[in-house]
User: Which sequence fits this backbone?
């Protein structure tokens, strides 16, 4: 019989202003099993989308907990308990009650926040802000698909948004509304970015730390930046930045475009593009880090300096040869093993979920590579899932007879946070010493196997067996997604 679990957390928040931040003390009683981990996180920046932990706390034997962390006057915080997540805009000096509405077990349900004063309810504030863009309001702009809305429709849309702005609680929410307004106007092709940006935002007071504003830049302005202006295309900056080009040169080149008048905006967008080029392999990490260092020393906006320094630290931490913490892995039988137990061979780690068909296809492809890698003795494979229904995953694993080691992520999610493995599937390749080789190994197939063989040969230069093996061929198979590679075993040589 499935139990209905109710959770009540009473949050007592007190604040002490220190350098513009408040010290939060949170305590409560969580009616779940003892040792359950609560995680309080926020995005470190909106370019790498790396989460920073504000605090981590486990319940004691009486299911009680207490925790301290510092935060700005108001900011969006994500609270996670197992797979349950709650995103809310928190304010200091308030008391919050958090409940878990569940119909199955502690892994299924939703976290809800209430407070004595509904006006400052953090979920209420966010929901009210998002509801400004109701279906009826958006329908004004997108009444006819693939057609630019007439001026009357744009004016009516703006009137509705202006009413929402008047009811917004604070500057944070007003910036969120303005960012979403401009995003929708751009999507409907009702405005061009330069004129609309100058109308709705002040370059001297940009809300760069607002997630909606960062999303606006990513979805609209970044695309525009990649397409031009002609001077950038002429220098082939997006085919690889030449070593002779420095940050100051890039800023001067971009200043010729009318859309890039606002310097802090250009700085942020430039960092976004440089980081994207590094992740896509268009420029080397070393070259990208040098450019980001120049940016951190030259930027005009303090938030951009903070972001540049954060991106540098993240890139350095993820470079090849970096030693990583010895994370814990939970096996199917409930035993806990360390990541270091796999040292001695290269290790391919896959973070996955069974919620999507693409992940299921991926597992079959990895299984093919693992079979060959195992026959050659060149590597180990581990698949880590955050799926909470462990029994369903075990059953699926047994039915498909996957050879990879199945592991579940412990509820502290330290390994998930470290590799920022929130967009699944996610890959990590470690060398035989347990150090990072790459966080983006080749997609399962012939190239990945060659990569594993190459790593093995670095440790075993005299190995002849691996060198003489044939690499598998890649072909398309109807049972897989269109265009996805599938490995075909090498054929035995025919006898004469």
Assistant:
């Amino acid at each position: 019989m499935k139990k209905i679990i109710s959770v009540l957390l009473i949050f007592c928040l007190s604040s002490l202003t220190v350098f513009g931040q408040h010290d939060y003390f949170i305590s409560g009683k969580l009616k779940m099993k003892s040792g359950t981990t609560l995680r309080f996180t926020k995005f470190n920046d909106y370019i790498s989308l790396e989460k920073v932990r504000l605090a981590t706390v486990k319940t004691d034997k009486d299911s009680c907990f207490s925790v301290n962390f510092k935060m700005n006057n108001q900011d969006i915080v994500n609270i996670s308990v197992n797979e349950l997540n709650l995103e809310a805009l928190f304010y200091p000096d308030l008391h919050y009650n958090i409940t878990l509405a569940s119909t199955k077990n502690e892994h299924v349900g939703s976290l809800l926040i209430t407070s004595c004063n509904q006006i400052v309810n953090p979920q209420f504030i966010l929901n009210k802000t998002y509801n400004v863009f109701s279906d009826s309001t958006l329908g004004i702009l997108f009444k006819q698909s693939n057609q630019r809305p007439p001026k009357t429709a744009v004016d009516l849309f703006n009137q509705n948004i202006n009413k929402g702005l008047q009811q917004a609680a604070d500057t944070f929410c007003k910036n969120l509304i303005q960012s979403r307004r401009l995003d929708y106007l751009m999507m409907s092709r009702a405005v061009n970015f330069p004129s609309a940006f100058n109308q709705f935002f002040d370059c001297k007071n940009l809300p760069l730390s607002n997630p909606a504003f960062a999303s606006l830049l990513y979805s609209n302005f970044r695309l525009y930046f990649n397409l031009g202006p002609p001077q950038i295309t002429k220098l082939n900056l997006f085919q690889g930045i030449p070593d002779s080009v420095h940050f100051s040169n890039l800023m001067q080149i971009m200043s010729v475009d009318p859309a890039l008048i606002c310097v802090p905006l250009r700085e942020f967008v430039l960092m976004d593009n440089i980081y994207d080029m590094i992740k896509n392999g268009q420029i080397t990490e070393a070259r990208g880090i040098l450019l980001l260092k120049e940016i951190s020393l030259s930027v005009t906006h303090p938030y951009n300096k903070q972001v540049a320094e954060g991106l540098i630290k993240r890139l350095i931490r993820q470079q090849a040869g970096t030693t990583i913490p010895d994370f814990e892995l939970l096996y199917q039988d409930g035993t806990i093993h360390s990541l270091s137990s796999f040292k001695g061979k290269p290790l391919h780690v896959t973070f996955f979920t069974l919620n999507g068909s693409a992940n299921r296809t991926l597992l079959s492809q990895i299984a093919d590579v693992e079979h060959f890698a195992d026959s050659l003795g060149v590597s180990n494979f581990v698949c880590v899932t955050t799926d909470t229904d462990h029994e369903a995953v075990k059953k699926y694993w047994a039915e498909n007879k996957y050879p990879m080691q199945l592991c579940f992520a412990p509820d502290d999610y330290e390994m998930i946070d470290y590799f920022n493995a929130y967009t699944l599937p996610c890959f990590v390749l470690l060398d035989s010493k347990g150090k990072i080789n790459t966080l983006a190994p080749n997609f399962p197939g012939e190239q990945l196997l060659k990569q594993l063989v190459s790593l093995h040969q670095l440790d075993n230069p005299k190995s002849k067996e691996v060198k003489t093996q044939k690499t598998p061929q890649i072909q398309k198979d109807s049972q897989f997604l269109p265009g996805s590679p599938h490995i075909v075993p090498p054929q035995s040589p025919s006898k004469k």
Q: What stands out?
A: Residues 141 and 149 are 6 Å apart (CA to CA). Residues 6-123 form a domain with the Immunoglobulin-like fold (CATH 2.60.40). Residues 1-19, 468-472, 474-496 have pLDDT under 50 and may be disordered.
